[in-house]
Structures are given as C-alpha cells and as structure tokens.
Amino acid sequence: MDRTPAAPDPEDAPVIVVGAAILHAGRVLAARRSAPAHLAGGWEFPGGKLEPGETEAAALVRECQEELGVTVRAVARLPGVWPLNQGYVLHLWRAELLAGEPQPLEDHSELRWLAPHELDDVAWLPQDRDAVAVVARLMATTPSG
Ligand SMILES: Nc1nc2c([nH]c(=O)n2[C@H]2C[C@H](O)[C@@H](COP(=O)(O)OP(=O)(O)OP(=O)(O)O)O2)c(=O)[nH]1
C-alpha cells in the first residue's frame, strides 16, 4: 500500500485559523507560542483551526476556553485574510472577555495585555504583522472599557 501522504490539493479551500483580538480595558491580549518548534517564542492572537461544520464565532469561543480558560464573545470579524504557513489563512475577530482571567493553559508559555503603545514590544510571528496593524487601528478608534 502507498503510505505517502497526499499532497495538498491546490483546489482545496484553505484551512481557516481564527484569531481572537480580545480587547479589555484598552489593551489587547497577546500570547507567546510554546509549540511547534518553528513557531515557539513567537507572539500571536489566541485561537486555532476551524473544525468542520463549526462557525468562526463558535471556534473562537471554543479555542479561548481551551487555551486560556476564559469565556469570550466574538464581537465582529476584522477586515482581512492573512496567509499563514501550511495553507492556513488567518481570520481575525474582535472579542470581548466575558468571564475568567486568561491563563496559558495550552500552546502558550506567556500572555500579555498590550496597550496600544506596547504593540511593538513583543516579537509577533512575521505572518501576523499586518493583522497587528489592523488591531492597532481598531484600538485607536475604540473607546477603552
Ligand atoms: N491561533 C493562531 N494561530 C496562528 C497565528 N498566526 C499563525 O501563523 N498561526 C498558525 C500557528 C498554527 O500553525 C496555526 C494554528 O494552529 P493551532 O495549533 O493554534 O490550532 P489548533 O488549536 O486548532 O490546533 P490543533 O487542534 O490542530 O492542535 O496557525 C495566530 O495569530 N493565531
């Protein structure tokens, strides 16, 4: 039997990764990846891959519960689609923290709440930089809660 993994079909729709821009008290939550090795140490938005049949909002809520132990509400998708590696694309959602204090339970080694002037203080994954710029613009126009 041929056990070679099938090459990705270019006709396949890309896998959507939903990222949460959780805004709280004028800051956004950033998370430092702990795995896999080639991404470890880079900062990103908490989130993960959409599962079959799942809405983006539901995936966002599920991933934030699993990774951070918090309940969030997906408020609105931010404009943009950012290509990641392995044929993934990032969709970013503004999210509101409803309950809990975020903890790095899964996939992350550190969390930070960043004020607008601190957005450049962490080493974002290179593929996230344009998305971070969109979040910076959002924070500039969002009254802090
Ligand atoms: N969550 C998230 N993932 C990102 C961002 N930027 C970026 O390149 N990625 C990559 C890292 C991973 O290769 C992929 C997301 O996969 P993941 O491992 O977080 O997803 P998951 O929680 O569903 O993981 P799994 O169940 O497959 O283990 O997208 C980002 O800002 N947020």
From TrEMBL:
GO biological process, one term: DNA repair
Catalytic activity line of the entry: 8-oxo-dGTP + H2O = 8-oxo-dGMP + diphosphate + H(+)
Pfam families cross-referenced by the UniProt entry: NUDIX
Source superkingdom: Bacteria
GO MF term (any one): metal ion binding
Keywords noted in UniProt: DNA damage, DNA repair, DNA replication, Hydrolase, Magnesium, Metal-binding, Mutator protein
Similarity section: Belongs to the Nudix hydrolase family.
Protein name per Swiss-Prot or TrEMBL: 8-oxo-dGTP diphosphatase
Lineage of producing organism: Bacteria, Bacillati, Actinomycetota, Actinomycetes, Kitasatosporales
